[in-house]
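Quarterly update from the structural biology core.
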Amino acid sequence: MLLKFTRHLVKWVPDRAAIRIVRFLATRSQRPSILPPQQEAMAKASVLHYGPDNQNVAWVWGDGPLVIFVHGWNGRAAQLAPLASTIAELGFKCVAIDVTGHGSSPQRHTDWEHFIVDIAALTQSLHQEVYAYVGHSAGALTMMAARGLKNIGASRYVCICAPSHPFPPIEVIRKKLGPRNRVLELYKNYIAGQFNDTWERLSTGRSFTNTGSDLLLFYDESDRFVNHTEGDKIRSLCPGARLIKTSVYGHMKILMAPELTQAIGEFLNLELRPHSAEFIPFQLT
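Predicted structure, tokenized:
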């Protein structure tokens, strides 16, 4: 009933009011429950605070070269905890962030800018060179954008089910609220402003450029939220990038896929040398 009323309201109020409604609903964050395997991995972590007044939370496993893990929109660090815990056992210091409005960090709303600002704030608070960033979905996109926007970087990047630009919420809003095209265009401009860019330039995938062989892309062909062809698009922009696809996990279960853990472990342990682009489909037995 509430959704039906909101759909009607957004279609009939002036553009300025409609965009405020869209922004309010689109930026409300959710906190998914923590599954038993995630709880087990979280129990091995220590807590780290970062950001304004040290109110935001991150989680730390192990010691060694620094690897920062970034969850997706409406995600939380716990979703990456089993992966981070396992990678830490290979000799890395793994830090998983809870972005503002997610997990144990404060606030009930989030936005693309929160991801970008928080990734940079956590990075700077650790006072250690970052060896790799590993991001899922929106977290992957924003960590790549933060390189240029916040002057941060690493030797390696792993992007899991990453959209080439911030289009997923536009599709959700179009489907659920059905606003006028003008309102959608205003919201696109609002999002693009958080990347200090235009929507047209963002849509080219430019947040991912200048990585090449330092980039590992991982997608699932059954993902209904971010189509696996986004990986092909990004790889075409980053000559030398590795692209791996599975076909049975979807958007969230992929974070628990043994193929993902194996691929990241191997990728992070590679010597820093150029390698050729390749597409590696996993054959499940």
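Residues 45-166+197-281 form a domain with the Rossmann fold fold (CATH 3.40.50.1820).
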